[in-house]
Amino acid sequence: MGHTSLDKIIALQRNPANIRNLCILAHVDHGDQEYLLNLIDSPGHVDFSSEVSTAVRLCDGAIVVVDAVEGVCPQTQVVLRQAWLENIRPVLVINKIDRLIMELKLTSQEAYTHLQKILEQVNAVTGTLFTSKVLEERAEKEKIEERESGTLSGDQVYDWSAGLEEADDSHLYFSPDQGNVVFASAIDGWGFSIQQFAHIYSQRMGIKTEVLLKTLWGDFYLNAKAKKIMKGAQAKGKKPLFVQLVLDNIWSLYDAVVTRRDKEKVEKVVTSLGVKVMARDSRHSDPKVLLSAICSQWLPVSQAVLSMVCEKLPSPLDMTAERVEKLMSVGARRFDTLPQQTQELKRAFLQCSSSENVPVIIFVSKMFAVDTKALPQNRQRPLTQEEIAQRRELAKQRHADRMAADQRAAENHKELTHSGTPQEDSKPAEEETFIAFARVYSGVVKKGQRVFVLGPKYDPAQALNMLPEKYSASDCVPEVPHLSCCSMESIYLLMGRELEELEEVPAGNVLGVGGLEEYVLKSATLSTSPACPPFTPLNFEATAIVRVAIEPKHPSEMPKLVRGMRLLNQADPCAEVLIQETGEHVLVTAGEVHLQRCLDDLRDRFAKIEISASKPIIPFRETVIRPPKVDMVNEELGKQHKVAIIHQVSQPQSHINTLHVDPSGLVTLTTPNRLATVSVRAIPLPQEVTRLLEISSELIRTLEQVNMSLREGKNLDISLSTVEAITELKGQLESLLQGRKWRNTVERIWAFGPRRYGPNILLNSVEGYQRPSVWQCLSRGDKVGEAGAQATVLRDFDNSIVSGFQLATLSGPMCEEPLMGVCFSIERWDIQSSAASQKQDSMEKDSISNEAVVEIKVEGSSETTPQAGGIASGPSQARRRPDVSSADCYGPVSGQLIAAMKEACRHAFQAQPQRLMAAMYTCEIMATAEVLGRVYGVLGKREGRVLHEEMKEGTDMFIIKAVLPVAESFGFADEIRKRTSGLASPQLVFSHWEVISSDPYWVPTTEEEYLHFGEKADSANQALKYMNAVRRRKGLYVEEKIVEHAEKQRTLSKNK
């Protein structure tokens, strides 16, 4: 495989059948055919799994590399799931097999058993994904049949296993006999698939290649007497064929070359294999050099992997219809509800055609920054002899000037040296430029071509109605939402770090596009057809949870920092850049390693200034729990404790005359103008419900979008799968919210929050107020008509109540962190009719089309009027005017109600036992037995909790699974490595939120607690420590004693 010319690569790009999109560009001769491989490498650390997502979207296949010693790690599972979600075909490379020989000292038979287990582990992950998919499809099919045939009888038995037997999953699994597994040791330069050995032995032994392919892996052995391959090696205690013909040879090679260094045997091996070894390799002091020289000729790893890639991975022409539909169906939209012109593009995807009349479709998965000097047009060309001579003369002249300048005055010296040196960094703003990392799915991309840039919310149906027919990107763009036009200034072939400029790129290829930095932030869909929908967003497995505030060392360099952070935000698919209300510039990353890399990039590449980063800002959540039954020393609580809590919370309030707190925890609050009163109670949600709401956030967001469309009278076609997912969510909530307290709760849900899709619920318990259900999209008949009818049932200021709830759940009273797992039940909501009149007045005056403009409802009446003027049955005009003028000094009623609702929720929250929730990492540590104690010590010191530990079979390694608060995780990996001398390394993945059991407001109240904790109770309260740290960072009041013990120094010294 020699160096390939650019012309040859351009020629190969025109044949999509021989393109394999995987990883670094290489040209491969494979038999009679030539293949073009686009190799996209992705980092293995769990913090950078977003990079895997961007790579996977552009590929048709993936090479999954697994360590032969460690086996399936959490990251392996993540990678396989990402490949599955994107419908791409993986192949497996089991690497580092040399470690089984040299480190673990396994025999060839033990190694074979170990490799079998690794394959089983990988296949178990794939099998789980496949099973869930089959069961989902089958459930969907049954629902359709049930809908068509009417309701089935109630006594029908549901057989979960049905459907799995019929589904063909043989092509999914990794098996050496299928040719999708390579065994390798990349460090020693060897790798093989069983096909290679099948060809070798079929010639030597006279057995057909097909027979060997089926029997080289599995429970088969060679009967030497009968000269037959028999089954049942394990039962008869015989060596399996794979051990006898493959592994034994490799083990004996290592034994001869590395372990015993037997020169005679090595010479025999070299002769029998027919390889040539250079004299310097055979004389080298390191035996691994000789081993590498033999293996790289006998079983070259590149040949094995590339042959597998060419034979087993699909070309761009083999893209499945299922994958195309999945890419084109954004959010709740069903593929068959998209416009006809959009659906016709599916054919262009499947054909992967490069003809002139086919629309161009490109997906940009990420933007990456390159040095402007590295671009082909700016690359230095080789100098001619004349130019070299000129530069030599110029250098001599400068040297003479410098020597003369040394003898002059100091100021002249400065001027001359500055004039003699070439100016650098004259244009610092242009040092980094962005290239879009993209793939062409259809058509031919040409340099300078104009295309549409489709934003993630772009709707092709809306655009096709607004644009004239046969509209192209070269025409002037009218105002179409989320659509813009750009020109692809330059297109590049990505050759590792090198870029080669091209004139055109046909379909099926990966390319770089220049000139898009002003139009594309992180990812985008580009097309010459406005009928093309935006592709579905990338699936990011990593959660961005670690945030730091950043500022420049020198305040004058703030503009450089802002520009640098903008560039970093564009270059990193997972990093987020925010400016908080306080004015802080905040960087949000996936983990400690990711954070460090982002800070280094910011310092060295994007901002090029000295920066100072705050300590990591740890996210917390606030929640309430059921009143505890025992105190801090496990004594039963009396009723006086609960009264003390409510008294303690309710005393420092300024608006005491408008606020009433019931002993049961019901908070009643009246607006300042006395026109509206709300009563709210906070109830803790069961943990299972909170978890369900958290994982269903995207679905709840879709539900909210659908409800908004219905309120506006729009007709939105949502896919059958989305409707079923919403139905299932509703059913799960009903099953989890059981009992007298939660009766009919799911139907009475008013809203979710914060941001309308969070894990908190607003509940409508107001007597006589029947508002539209949030589940109205499930039971709608005539879509538009019924939506219009239901919209009028909303009461005045309904939206103000929801807005107050959203604000309350966004920042809680403990330390202004979002709430989680809290249900706010509104048990009373009274509005005097003059408030509604004021609303009507303000609408007439300002002509504001508010959400409830056609939803004015007469208090105490079920009649509705379509116009805003329907308040005739309210109080008379004469009585109304004074109320309005008195209300005006407090501002609009809607605003007062939002504030009152927010305060009522906060007080209701404080009337219950409050707790902080900490973000938790799942921590998986591999460690040897001798360092286990140290690992446990580090975990214990950092509030970690071990879930379980198990020994990895065939090794002396233990796998420890633990949970660790994110707040305690900084420096954890370094400390573990230091304490264990590098013998243990953790992998941290964000897992869940967990309630911190201690009460941050706890003070001793009973005699037993005073005895146990002392009067000050100054033992460390973890929750209080976290809460005060957050309050201090946000500039909130922190109640703490500055002087703790006021003894004099002299007194202390006397007492010694």
From TrEMBL:
Domain spans labelled Tr-type G: 1-317
Organism: Lates calcarifer
One Pfam family of this chain: EFG_C
Taxonomy of the source species: Eukaryota, Metazoa, Chordata, Craniata, Vertebrata
Spans annotated as Disordered: 393-429, 859-885
Gene Ontology MF annotations: GTP binding; GTPase activity; ribosome binding
Feature: compositional bias, Basic and acidic residues: 393-417
Nucleotide-binding listed as a keyword: yes
Name of the gene this protein is made from: EFL1
Keywords: GTP-binding, Hydrolase, Nucleotide-binding, Ribosome biogenesis
A GO BP annotation: cytosolic ribosome assembly
Name of the featured protein: Elongation factor-like 1
GO cellular component terms attached to this protein's record: cytosol; ribonucleoprotein complex
